Amino acid sequence: MTAPVFLADGGELADAVRSGGGTVVLEGPEGRHAVSVKRLRPGEEVVLTDGAGTGVAGTVGNVSGKDRLEVAVTSVLAEAEPRPLITVVQALPKGDRGELAVEMLTETGVDRIVPWAASRCVTQWRGERGAKSLRKWQSAAREAGKQARRLRFPEVADLATTAQVAQVLRDAGLGVVLHEEGSESLSAAELPADGGIVLVVGPEGGVAPEELASFAEAGARPCRLGPTVLRTSTAGTAATALLMARSGRWS
């Protein structure tokens, strides 16, 4: 198995990256997970990352208590920003399906996730409940990033309105609204030579006509995935996987 990945904060990781060696202490919640859950012991290999594309590989040294271990750095790691960048605009699903969508998108390799308050969303993020829900999505992306052995975790943006999503689409090299009645298949859509790709995934009730019109004005095209209709929590992952293969990011 590949070495497990942990998120390391603070200056020690930056110092180790600059010097190409030294020792990094992992403690607190991440240290507790490494020691008490993963039960890492001296001599085992680990990877520490800042979640932004930089990290180190190392060997576990001294383990003390239930939440502290030292990692002797053996090499510096770097994950370049991928091309094309893939953003998924995810309408808010019901229940915990939003966190499931974030987990799967992260494991598939998406670079940015934008929660969208579509007009037909049953779930609404307001006040402290909205802030708590956003934190859950961000935590899901962080944990899935470690599970997927990524050095660069996806950004989970603030909740976006339809107007804000339209602006994201205007800035994209390719904007796509996943739609079962789309005249074009995503598997045949021409990928951009430059710029990122933005996928819009609607809610359980579908994308409203006025939202489709707004996104079309911003340059987005309605595309279908295939003959079956996927749930809002799985459609983005399927589309991302297709684009990963077509763009060469999985080659």
From TrEMBL:
Alphabetical keyword list: Cytoplasm, Methyltransferase, rRNA processing, S-adenosyl-L-methionine, Transferase
Gene3D superfamilies: 3.40.1280.10, Hypothetical PUA domain-like, domain 1 (2.40.240.20)
Coiled-coil portions: none
Keyword Methyltransferase assigned: yes
Record EC number: 2.1.1.193
InterPro entries per the UniProt record, alphabetical: Alpha/beta_knot_MTases, PUA-like_sf, RsmE, RsmE_MTase_dom, RsmE_PUA-like, tRNA_m1G_MTases_N
Occurrences of domain Ribosomal RNA small subunit methyltransferase E methyltransferase (ranges): 85-243
SUPFAM superfamilies the UniProt entry points to: alpha/beta knot, PUA domain-like
Catalytic EC class: transferase
Main location: cytoplasm
Reaction catalysis annotation: uridine(1498) in 16S rRNA + S-adenosyl-L-methionine = N(3)-methyluridine(1498) in 16S rRNA + S-adenosyl-L-homocysteine + H(+)
Compartments where found: Cytoplasm
Record-stated family: Belongs to the RNA methyltransferase RsmE family.
Role description: Specifically methylates the N3 position of the uracil ring of uridine 1498 (m3U1498) in 16S rRNA. Acts on the fully assembled 30S ribosomal subunit.
Name of this protein: Ribosomal RNA small subunit methyltransferase E
Biological source species: Streptomyces daqingensis
